[in-house]
Amino acid sequence: MALLLIRHPRPRIDQGHCYGSNDVEVADEVWQASLAALLPQLPQRAAIVTSPLRRCAVLAQALADALRQPLAVEPDLREMDFGAWELRAWDDIAWSEVEAWNQDLLHYAPGGGETLPAVARRMWRAWERLRRHAQAEADGVSDLIVVCHAGSIRMLRACAAWQTGQRQASAPDAAALDAIALLAVQERGEIAYGEVMRLALPQQLPPHP
To answer: Which member of 24, 56, 86, 139 has the lowest number of beta carbons within 10 Å of its beta carbon?
Structure first.
């Protein structure tokens, strides 16, 4: 069984702006085109989980309706909070602030929002719940569809990579959350809007902490 991670469609905002936790929308024709492109790629029996932000939730609801499958909202899947940077043009954000983040990726909170380890902490919670949701839905369901964000996808893959490297079941401590955060930001590959990425789940789930 796997998570089918889908990045939301392109939102209705100039791409030269910073946006993360802000609830920007997707134009109707854009999510409808994304829905049409995604349906042939997805299994007919797969529960669906979504970030609460509308650029994900609208598409996820349409997928759930089309596939006649249940939809659950996972609040911890939301994108990183960039605080005062949200909805500002990148060109209008002082270079000294951007450089301060570049120099201290783990401890600097861009715009006074979230630090990367804080995002990793809540994304680990989401990862645990997604795996257990998948286990609960395993009978007759092939995969779990997850509609979220590029940053969330990178964090989930980093959580999976960190857990794969552990010799025994354990939750990450502060140092491990730092490592997960760095794994996520070091992944440079582009994640396209509406792209489907398969993330395999471990066959045996560790006991719930």
So the answer is: 139
Closest CA to 153 of 110, 193, 114, 117: 193
% of residues, the chain, pLDDT over 90: 80
pLDDT band at 166 (very low <50, low <70, confident <90, very high): confident
Number of alpha carbons in the 13 Å side-chain half-sphere of residue 74: 27
d(CA 175, CA 182) in angstroms, rounded, equals 11
Give the 3-state secondary structure of residue 157: helix
Residues facing residue 82 across a β-bridge: none
Tens-place pLDDT, residues 111-157: 999 999 999 999 999 999 998 887 776 565 668 999 999 999 999 99
Residue bearing tokens 């795996």: 131
| Residue 6 · residue 195 · CB < 8 Å | yes
Which neighbouring-strand residues pair with 144? 3, 47
Task: For residue 166, give every residue at least 6 positions away whose Cβ sits within 8 Å of its Cβ, in sequence order, or none.
Answer: none
Residue 209 — pLDDT band, cuts 50, 70, 90?
Answer: very low
Residue 89 pairs with which residues in a beta bridge? 17
